[in-house]
Amino acid sequence: MNQATSSLRATVSRFHPISAPDYVPLDKLRDLQSARLCRMVQRVYENVPLYRTRMDKLGVHPNDIRGIDDIVRLPFTMKVDLRDTYPNGLFASPMKEIVRLHASSGTTGKPIVVAYTQQDLDVWKEVVARSLVSFGLDRSDVLQNAFGYGLFTGGLGLHDGVERLGATVIPISGGNTERQIMIMKDFNVTAVSCTPSYFIHLIDKAMEMGLDLREFPLRTGIFGAEPWTAAMRQRIEELSNIRAFDIYGLSEIVGPGVGAECCAQQGLHIFEDHFYPEIIDPETCEVLPDGEEGELVLTTLSKDAMPMLRYRTRDITALENVPCPCGRTIRRIRRISRRSDDMLILRGVNVFPSQIETAIMRVEGTLPHYQIVLTRDGGLDRIEVMIEVSAEVLGDTVASVEIFRRKIAAAIENIIGLHVKVTLVTPRTLIRSEGKIQRVLDKRV
Ligand code: DLL
Known about the structure:
Elements: H1 3-12, H2 26-47, H3 49-58, H4 79-84, E1 98-104, E2 112-117, H5 118-134, E3 142-145, H6 153-165, E4 168-170, H7 177-186, E5 191-194, H8 196-208, E6 220-224, H9 230-240, E7 243-250, E8 255-261, E9 268-270, E10 275-280, E11 294-300, E12 311-317, E13 332-333, E14 338-339, E15 344-346, E16 349-351, H10 353-362, E17 366-377, E18 380-389, H11 391-394, H12 398-416, E19 421-425, E20 440-442
Parallel strand pairs: 3-4, 3-5, 5-6, 6-7, 17-20, 18-19
Antiparallel strand pairs: 1-2, 7-8, 8-9, 9-13, 10-11, 11-12, 12-14, 15-16, 17-18
Helix pairs in contact: 2-3, 5-6, 7-8, 8-9, 9-10, 10-12
The chain binds 5'-O-[hydroxy(phenylacetyl)phosphoryl]adenosine.
């Protein structure tokens, strides 16, 4: 380790015993993953008819799975499997051992329900606490948890991890934004957790109340549950003078705490002693080497109530193939800025909302509020990007406003290769969200 790396390690990762598994030697990690995979496969084969049928079809018996490298022989699982087996077809533990249920509503049809035993909740607490340590938090922190409490995994998931660490949690949930600001101020809150879009709303609301978050003791933001770009992070950090960290997770696997950034902020470490990551080509399902971008597939290695075999997340990322300067041995994924199912095809060109966000954030004077509206006109798909801009920009001469509008359209065209209609709107025109924001409004049907 060179001097620069070791000093980074010293400053960025104050070692905490709870994070010991993050630094385990790679051979030990693989042995642990192998042992856990073998046990898990045996359990699901015995207890979950869907997995047994699929494995039988592939001619794979639990005895064929001797180590983590054999994972590629196992069948994939998709969201539709959770819907088809609603409400409890994938449970591997009897109801008397299940102590918590959560659910994710999705956009259509039945919700997906996920279950936890006490042991599963303990693992979840541990991985969230490990995430918090990797953000640099400790017992002296006061965390305002503005993720929604309830069936959504964000609120209770974060909550339990904060308690496990021994920091103070304020379980405020989402909404009631003025009260959020008041509590943040009165309780000297040092960390906040919510969706990045809701945090932007909090910054705006504070300004409206004549307050500036930069003057609060707040220094850490924990953001996730929706895609956000590096450019958005930069905006958030400038506007609030905090460090904004990315936390990733999904209900099907556990909720928040599947992966988290460390202070190096160069990708998210996956807690791969519990959740084994693979990257596949979403078309061919071929496993891709580290460094190549594709769909993230996750296998739970220690979950009892509802284990997942090679779950296709639809989230697009890559596994980093170089060690992290923070010294953690568990691997990292690149930040998830898109899902394979949020791709828009416009005039034959593939467009992701995150590309539009990156372009908008590059133009000075835009506010971090935008919406993409899709319409159909004479059989042709049209896209309009609505962006809030400051009152000063709009108060300028008509010619200057037009130049500004064209600048944004050019920035977007530069990234996506298409000319799109850009509409500038006054601050607070676009709808705000207290949870996950819907960036694309599809009016085509
Ligand atoms: O959103 C769990 C969570 C709560 C994660 C709080 C982080 C913080 P679901 O509602 O099941 O669970 O949605 C999971 O959200 O497959 C991603 O597409 C997206 N997602 C979650 N975290 C991130 C992130 C929670 N950090 C789906 N960056 C996932 C980008 C994210 N997308």
